[in-house]
Amino acid sequence: MASAWERICSEKESPNSFCYPETSFNSIVLCHEYQREQLNPRAIGELRLAARQYKGKLMIVNTFGESGQMHSYPFCKSKEKIANPDIRQLAELYESAGFDFRVVLLDRTPESSMASLLISRGMRHKQQLMWQAQEMTAGLQALNMQLSKLDPRFLAGAVSLERRKRENKDNAYLHLEKSLSLSSDSLKKMFKGFHSKEPQCIDSANEDQTQLEKHLVDLYKQYYQYHTCYVSPLLS
């Protein structure tokens, strides 16, 4: 998604400053101190100020900034800790600043996500499968809880790495074009470099298989809730 937004917002392809890099979410929200999982008043003030000073029509708050990284949920790489931003609080904050707050959901199976982290990114030496399953389960639990409290009208659409490029583009024309006020040309640029992921299977023979199976079952319960309740309705 980071490269997709960059194609849409680049000066060469968007001369009217439709959108440009904004780092307020990255620097304030993801690594800020929280009070009961919510931002404290100082952080809220900083975000409101950044939103009011923003001149573009579309602000991408967590996947397009100077860092150039895709920020997953939860995420706080710079301080080596995990943050679970309160989506409802962010919706209220940005709506009060004059923005139409919208969320784009990403869909990827647990096997594919873990294979990407443990194998494709060369992190197998420090992150075992059981640990990764626990981390993903906790993240999905927090995400499911917050989405359950968010008005569905804030959900702009979904992109699935398990679907083909054509399917995602057709779905984007149905949902994202209207909800994000994107033109057909912008949507074409958004999926220019998109590649679906092939199904992957991974195992970890050195770990307790009974405990590993238990954690994977817990993970899939959370994933199916996320996929069935929130992603699937947006992939029609």
Structural features, described:
The mean pLDDT is 77. The strands form two sheets. Strands 1-2 form a two-stranded antiparallel sheet. It has a two-stranded parallel ribbon with strand order 3-4. Strand 1 and strand 2 form a beta hairpin. The protein is built from ten helices and four strands, in the order ααββααβααβαααα. The radius of gyration is 18 Å and the shape is globular. The protein is mainly alpha-helical and 236 residues long. Helix 1 (2-9) packs across helix 9 (184-190) and helix 6 (129-148) runs parallel beside helix 10 (209-231). The longest helix is centred in the last third of the chain and has 23 residues, at 209-231. The chain has helices at 2-9, 24-29, 41-53, 87-96, 110-120, 129-148, 165-174, 176-179, 184-190, 209-231, and strands at 34-35, 38-39, 103-107, 155-160.
Brief descriptors of the model:
236 residues; mainly alpha; two-stranded antiparallel ribbon; two-stranded parallel ribbon
